[in-house]
Every structure is written in C-alpha cells, then in structure tokens.
Design brief:
about 110 residues; single chain
Length: about 110
C-alpha cells in the first residue's frame, strides 16, 4: 500500500511539473505574440518585454495556484467532516434498524408462546 501511495505521489509530482512547464511555455508564446504587435522595439527591448511579461504571468499563475490549493484543502476538510457525520448517522440508523427488528422478533416470539 505504501508503494502505491509513493507511486501516486510521484505521478502527481511529474504531472505538476509538466503542467507548470506547459504554463511557462504558454506564457512565453503569449509574450512573443504580444511583442510581435510592437514592431518598433529593438531586439534587446523585445527580449526585456518578453522576460517581464513571462515573469509577471508566472507570478500570477503561482498566486492563483496557491489560492486553489488552499481552497482545495478547505473543501477537503469540509467534505471530510460531512462524510464523518453522514457515516455516523448511517451507523446509528443501522443500529436502530437492527434493534427494532430484534425487538419485533422478540415480541413476536413472546406473543406466540
């Protein structure tokens, strides 16, 4: 079981790495498209604008991901608490149903004697 968890964690890390690299590449692509609209820039200026654009986009993405991770953790906590309450209610209902059925059987047995 621990090996499966390690494998899942490793796969999640690889997936995260690939997704992040794809996001950085998309930022670079968008930066290139942006600077292509500014034909008067020198090569050095174009590179500077692209670098700043990519850096800004990476910061925005990182902040968004941080917020998403935080919210996911909150939701996990909320749903775990709800699941625990629901499970407790189901167990209580099952115990009550078994007790009622046992009581009914006992009553029928006593009445039929």
């Amino acid at each position: 079981m621990k090996r499966d968890e390690e494998s899942a964690r490793g796969l999640a890390q690889v997936e995260g790495y690939l997704l992040w690299n794809a996001e950085v590449e998309e930022a670079r692509r968008q930066a290139g498209l942006f600077t292509a609209q500014l034909p008067w820039l020198t090569t050095a200026q174009r590179e500077d604008v692209e670098r700043v654009y990519v850096a800004d986009r990476v910061v925005v993405c990182r902040e968004s991901l941080t917020r998403i991770v935080g919210r996911a953790a909150e939701l996990r906590g909320e749903y775990t608490a709800r699941y625990e309450r629901l499970r407790a209610r189901c167990v209580a209902a099952s115990v009550m149903a078994v007790a009622a059925a046992s009581g009914a059987c006992a009553a029928v047995t006593l009445i039929s004697r």
